[in-house]
Amino acid sequence: MTSSRPDFLAHRTGDAVAVAVRDLVPGPVRGGYLDDGDAAEELSLHHDVPLGHKLALRDIGAGEDVIEYGVRTAVASADIARGDYVHTHNVRSARWHNSVA
Amino acid sequence: MAQQRRLTGYRRPDGSVGTRNHVAILPVDDLSNAAAEGIAALVPGTLALPHAFGRLQFGDDLDLTFRTLIGIGSNPNIAAVIVIGIEPNWTDVVADGIAKTGKPVHRVAIEGKGDLRVIESASRYAKKFLQESSELTRQPVDRSDIVLSMKDGESDTTTGLGSCRVTAYLVDRWVESGGTMIFGETSELTGGEHLIAERCVDDDVRARFQAFYDDYVDMIEKTGANLLGSQPTQGNIAGGLSTIEEKAMGNIVKTGTVPIVGALAPAEAPTRPGLHFMDTSSAAAECVTLMAAGRGVVNLFPTGQGNVIGNPVQPVVKISANPKTTDSMADHIDVDCSDVLTQESTVEQAGEALIDLVERTINGRVTASEALNHREFTLTKLYRSA
Questions:
Q1: Is the peptide bond before B232 cis (omega within 30 degrees of 0)?
Q2: Which residues form the SAF domain (chain A) (predicted)?
Q3: Region A2-92: CATH code
Q4: Same domain assignment for residues B42 and B165
């Protein structure tokens, strides 16, 4: 039972980030997609990611859009690698330019 | 399909249906709070609704305060109202507005009498209203009689993944059954406002929605302030949300998939069934108060990190999918749907459990926020008083 529980979930196939659904530590993790129950994703996590925080599913260059829920929810403010922790230190709002850490 | 629960409520003279049966003591202004609370102390069982404003307001800001106070007094969860103000003219505006519902209203102004005489005279009406309202009984009602509102707070990524999806399941079922729902949080649609505009049922509703959205965001952007820590809040960021757009998508998820049939001004009541947008702040107490003025009789409140808000007029139902919160703040949570996050239960299963709890709340079950005496009643102010 425990082994079938995901470590992380992404909203849509094609999203660049996913959400940890438990506290995660560096190493191999696996997860899935809400819109496609059959799709699975495995990757090597580089950082601690607490429950509810995000990890990158693919490389995102500084200045690129960050896609989540199938829409742009942020812009990368630094280069992000697949498996990196993603939060206010490396993404910012695309819409509210003053909303920065 | 599960058999629908028998719903009951208090049917008011204007045909609206309440889930509670309060006698409210409603001050028009801050100066009248002491007398309002004096009446409620003499006649326990009545509900004083003190608030901070109502003096020297003008223009749109005054209109909103009147619309809010009249809407609160007109809310079907309230059986009868004592309206109390420092001077008679504005007291009459509020009392006349509420009296249009046909419910009992008594008005009193303090100038020329003083608090003690006012408390004595108004307490007799409060006692009479309390006794009369105690004989009103719950009648069978339908989902189509019930206006539900919704707002999320202390959101995190588990709201978008869990509690907001579960709420969305209820929204779609409720509207399919002919019910009415209100969502809001204007600035918290940023990044997904086009998704809301696309769901508006016609061009008029769409134009109204877009104007509310543009005005609100212009107001915020004109300040030039850094919003990080305010919107999203520190709690949102601690919960993993990084941007306003990411927070907005969770807010939007909870509105389900049904068309948006109305775009309401703050505190405006819906005039037809279906899902309505209301122009509101995302601050919980302001938003839920405006939605109560818009005649919401139960509020659905998905939370991530654990917002404790309640409202004196409409019961607030807390829904959380964050297993840390449902553990550490269990006292405040009515519906634990953290199993959705671990995929041990489906959105449909959790959604049916939420509908069950909401229908029991409609029928009189006391929510966590009611039991813990959370009565946040906060007027929205558009600008400084004169």
A1: yes
A2: 15-92
A3: 2.30.130.110
A4: no
